[in-house]
Amino acid sequence: MTQTPTRSSATERTAQTATRRVTPDATRRVPDASSAPASTAPDAPSRLPLFVLLAGIFLNVLDFFIVNVALPSIERDLHATATALEWVVAGYGLTYGAMLLAATRLGDRWGRRRVYAAGTALFVVTSAACGLAPTMDVLVAARFAQGVAAAMLTPMVLALIGDTYSGAAYRRALAAYSTAMGLAAVSGQIIGGLLIQLDLFGLGWRSIFLVNVPVGVAALALVRRTLPDVRPNRAARLDLVELALATTVLVAVLLPLMEGQSHGWPLWTWLSLAAGVVLTVPLVVRARTLHRRGADPLLRVALEASPALRHGLARQFLLFLGMASYFMVLALYLQADRGLGALASGALFGLVALPYLAGTSKAASLVARWGRLVGPASALVFLLGHALTWVGVADAGAHGSVLWLAPGLVVSGFGMGVCLTAQIGAVMSQAGREDAAMVSGTMSTVQQLGNCIGVALVGLLYFAVTTTGTGAAFQHSLVYLASVMALLAVVSALPSRRASEAVA
What does each C-alpha distance from 476 to 81, 390, 460 come to in angstroms? Predict the structure, then answer.
């Protein structure tokens, strides 16, 4: 498994013998796998660029989770139907996942800083539109557009981190990136609950969207002053046929995964999934044709990836099979079974958030000392957390204290923090400067697919068992989540086929 580079000289010498295979032409600079993407900045640059970049990824992930808290208030205020509320959630995730690869190509053509700035500006405008929406139709349309903005932001963040930082500063920036992602996910519920509870200026649920505006404006004002304007050696052409096929495949797969459970998996969901599988064939054929012609297809990373990169992306998929689904069933258990409000259940998420912070801060030093063992070990720690949570639910029963869950939540948070940080470093260590956006976009697409499939699978299990009680449903879901982490640990422990994979 490939992780962030270690500090041991032996490991560094091993890693320096490896070469990366994802660049399509020999004229591009090919870094070794032991180093982060080269930077135009010194090894210890200002942290201000990192704030600008992490603001984007934090707001992006936060808006996945924070909206769930506000749905009852939105329903009352805008007289929303159940279908409209579903689209407030699903519309954002759908356009985000479907547009990631296309947005990545825009960064290659127009420059990463420019696309990041444009995505931030669009995110600010669409957040304001969500917060000021007079009707459900306007809110749903604004959420679709907000997902497009998020897709423009996400791949640029890791690419710009590589353009800005190098060496130890780059590894610290990757840890900060993982921290921002996790904190946004685990704090979404408590931030949303707090904002609605405070009812600032009488805004109610609207504040969960409007809070993005000042943060986004502040980040946007600093973009030109803090971020480098690195342009690719040559602008990659966007093939409209490949783009249409890729977008159609992603929509055909993501839409039923997001909507199937709530609609009882009708026929159209299965037809859509089948269409996504079938259309993958002409998509791959088109990408291979473009590649043979010397063009730069959207699927180039998948076509040219080294074994180390493929391995890293597979681990990302497995990890995210158990990420969003974990947050979902934990929230359902705390609110539906234990009767906690959004604010109280959000406070319980703090038992995950604080150890998560500790895990992300320790990940780099753990990788430096233990190398590739950190991957399977952190997955097993995450698994142990699920097992302890299962025991805590059994001990708490229907009326015992929810604090019985505390040991499991703490262990899960730490394991998740180490695992996510190490896995992201493993993937990005395979990307040179010019490929960082494409690798980041591909990784984000894999993460989104993993999240959606994981939520669909755990949703099927959870709601099938709720007739015996939500506590039992949560326990069954924990068995699924532990199984996913066990599989991740096994895959992470597989011996590497190349010297470059021995780095992690």
Answer: 31, 9, 11
